[in-house]
Each structure stands twice: as C-alpha cells, then as structure tokens.
Amino acid sequence: MEEAERDSFRVRKRRWAIVVIGVPKEVKEGERRVGMTPAGVRSLVSEGHRVLVEGGAGVGSGIDDEDYASAGAEVVSTAQEVWERADMIVKVKEPVSSEYRFLREGLVLFTYLHLAANPELTWKLVDTGVTALAYETVETEDGYLPLLAPMSQIAGRMSVQVGARLLEADCGEGILLGGIPGVPPADVVVIGAGAVGSNAARIAVGMGAKVTVLDVDGRKLRHLEEVLHGRLITLNSHAENIERAVLKADLVIGCVYKVGERAPVLVGEDLVRSMRKGAVIVDVAVDQGGCVETSRPTSFESPTFVVHDVVHYGVSNMPAAVPRTSTRALTDVTLPYILKMANMGVERALEDDPSLRRGLNVHRGSILHPGVAASVGRYG
Fold first, then answer.
1. Catalytic residue among 187, 250, 283, 287
2. Domain that holds residue 127
3. Catalytic residue among 49, 87, 114, 250, which?
4. Longest Cα pair distance anywhere in the chain, in angstroms?
5. What is the edge-to-edge ordering of all strands in the sheet holding 88-90?
6. What DSSP assignment string belongs to 81-121?
7. In the chain, how many domains are there?
8. pTM, 2 dp
9. How far is residue 267's CA from residue 292's CA, in Å, rounded to a whole number?
10. For residue 150, what are the contacts with CB-CB under 8 A and spacing of at least 6?
C-alpha cells in the first residue's frame, strides 16, 4: 500500500474514532492504582491515538512518568488538562465530588462505577450528558464479568488475609485462623460463591480454617467442592442456613453481587447482634451497598468499626492495597475494550460488541442499564 493510500485508510478508520485518551491520577482515598500501564499506552499510540497521563498518576503502582513518556504518552501537569483534552477518560474508581466539575457532555468515561449504591454520582452523570461505561457490568453472553473478575479474585483473596489479621487480639477474638494441632481453627463463613467467594474459600481452606460457603447456585457449590476436594461445607443460601452459619462464625465474608444492582441484604442487624463477641465481618459487597445491614464503606485510613461487639471492615477498594498486582491485572483485561472503542468509536463498538454494550450505564442523559435504573429508581 502506497503512503498516500495508507494515510487515506487511517483517515477513514479514524472517522468515528476516539483520538485522545486521558489517564488522570486517582484521587479516592487510599487509591494507588492507575487506569493504564505503559504497555497499554504503547498499544494505543501504535494505533495512532494520543494518550494523556497526569503527572504522578502511576507512582503508587511503581510506574514513573518517564515510563509513560517512553511508551509515547504525553505527561501533563494537571488533572484538569487531562479531563478537558481527552475524548475518553480511563480510570480505576468512580469520580469523586472534586472531579464532578470535569464531567461534560460528549465525554466517554470508562471505569468502575458501582452506581447502584451512589445515586448522587448517577444523577451527575445523567445531568452532564456523559457516556459512562462501567467495568463491573461488562458481561459476556454466558454471564462472565471479564473486567470485574481480576479485582474480584484479588479482593476475595485479600478478604481472608484481612479477616485473619482482624481476628487477632488487638482487634477481635484473639484466635488463629488456621488453629494448630489440638486447638480448633476459626469458623469462616463465605456468603456467595462467585469470583470473590470462590477465591476467599480457596485461601481460607489453604490456611486451615473451617470453611462454609453459601450460594443459590448449586453448580458453583459443586465446582468448589470438586476443586477443593470436599475440604469445606457448602450450603444452599436461604435465611435459615445463613442464620445458622453466621451465628457460629468467627469470620463472615460477604461476597454477593447482582450485576448493576444494589447488593441484597442477607445478614440483618438482629443477626449481627447475636454473633460472637469479637467476630469479624468483611463485607466485600460494600461498594454495591453491602450484604450486611450494619456494614458501611470505610477507608484504608480508618478501615474498621464495631457494631454490637462485632468488628466490621468495609474498605470498598481493597485491591488498591496491592497496586503493583492489580493495576497490571486491570489493564490486561480493559485494554482490548479501550482499543476497540478508540479504533471504532464508541457507538460502532457498542453495536459490534454485546458484552461492551452491557457495560453502558449512562448515555446522553439517560440511565440505560436496567439494574442501575432499578436501584436508583428511574429508567432512561
């Protein structure tokens, strides 16, 4: 192909394309991840796109500005410049109030949003005309959540580490999760056997705990029994089984997720009141509103609180504690979708890819995801 023909092809190819991708520094408390690695930048630049990265955005993940510049990004000094010049913003966590001023009509936002538990942000996205796609609702035909999966795996594994630490005497009951010969291990209850719950169960079993997993999907329970060689108890998830399991638990890990919707409350306050003194609840579902009635979002700075003598942990961005792992895992799964939208443009990419289309939460002033719409009380 002659150079003139290649140039003409590039123009046609870019006709509906996103040209400038912005990667701002995350400002949510304790957030050390970044929306894109230098490898992701290099892939986009090689396709003819421009990438703007806010200075210092990757420091928490061990990535220097020079790494981004070497990959072809333009490193800029302020978040405002990134947001104002970009056609699409790629983040990790939802915009916080200090970033609302950057939202504008026509901007494409691709990040974790968890709008069901955040009506204020939902209406802000609606009112400003942003096209907002949520990582956590991108869903394949078979129900797989490819952009949520790696962070769910990390959060599930971390939930047991966190719970084991909180069971020590300075926080909780003062027991060793795995016990020792002659002294029984902790009783761990995992509510939900999806990506978070299955990873939590694997780690808890590996640490020697007595593990009970509850779920409404018998297939997931059978799979866990098979891969863990029966070294756990599986129960159908209903009110009676939940109550029996929770009452004897030392550690309860909430792992319930309904795509786009607020998490159902499965552990009520009366049940929490009846739990063992010093027991621990790690509610991984807290970013979707929480599956424990007494839980609420917390931060790395102040991660726990106590209700009815039960320790609660509600950090909603747990994978931020391991940013060198989570940032790379996130870019690996988001990059193909970013490239598709950059090359084809958002509307054509959505037409072409049903899984990406399910990730569309808000578009041109309307709420388009039914789970989000039901949770915040309004359909677009």
1. 287
2. 3-138+323-376
3. 114
4. 79
5. 74-76, 50-54, 20-23, 88-90, 108-111, 131-134, 360-363, 366-367
6. HHHHH-SEEE-SS---GGGGGG--TT-EEEE---GGG-HHH
7. 2
8. 0.91
9. 5
10. 326, 329, 330, 332, 333
Considering the domain architecture, whether residues 335 and 281 belong to the same structural domain is answered as: no
Residue 303 lies in a domain: yes
pLDDT tens column, 218-274? 999 999 999 999 999 999 999 999 999 999 999 999 999 999 999 999 999 999 999
Amino acid identity for residue 197 in this structure: G
CB 342 within 8 A of CB 46: no
97-152 pLDDT, tens digit each: 999 999 999 999 999 999 999 999 999 999 999 999 999 999 999 999 999 999 99
Q: Are residues 24 and 156 in the same domain?
A: no
What tokens does 318 get? Answer: 């747990």
In tens, the pLDDT along 42-66 reads 999 999 999 999 999 999 999 999 9
The verdict on 155 and 304 lying in the same domain is yes
Q: How far apart are CA 379 and CA 39, in angstroms?
A: 38
- Domain shared by 279 and 337, yes or no: no
Cα dist from 115 to 34, 140, 142, 198, whole Å? 20, 20, 23, 25
What are the φ and ψ backbone dihedral angles of 22, each rounded to 5 degrees? -110, 140
Told to judge if 114 belongs to the known catalytic residues of this protein, a careful annotator would answer yes
- Asked whether residue 201 falls in the same domain as residue 310, the answer is yes
317 and 327 share a domain?
Answer: no
What DSSP string runs through 309-375? TEEEE-BTTGGGGSHHHHHHHHHHHHHHHHHHHHHH-HHHHHHH-HHHHTTEEEETTEE--HHHHHH
Is 352 a residue of the active site?
no
Q: How many CB atoms lie within 10 A of CB 284?
A: 32
At 262, list the tokens: 């607020």
Question: Would you say residue 143 lies in a domain?
Answer: no
φ and ψ at 134, to 5 degrees? -105, 130
Question: Same domain for 297 and 162?
Answer: yes
| Tokens linked to 323 | 């940013």
The answer as to whether 344 is a domain residue is yes
Domain of 293, CATH number, reads 3.40.50.720
Strand order in the sheet with 251-254: 233-236, 210-215, 187-191, 251-254, 280-283, 310-313, 304-307
